[in-house]
Amino acid sequence: MEREVIVYSTPMCPWCQVAKKHLDERGVAYREVDVASDQQAAMEMVRKTGQQAVPVVEIDGEVVVGFDKGKIDQLLAARGT
To answer: Whole-model pTM?
Structure first.
């Protein structure tokens, strides 16, 4: 089963780049959402997290705010990646 991974980010966010690089290194496909240019996506991210901080990594509906490598790896491992 293909999982859904979404990375909410902004172009100038260094931790966003780190999060995407980590997913790339693990071979995880993800959809990137630039919340700096998509106001509706930004509002959706805030609705999900209650925060405006990026990166936000969403893995099959589970949300991780910030680059929390351990939590991201835990969620991916639980889903077989």
So the answer is: 0.91
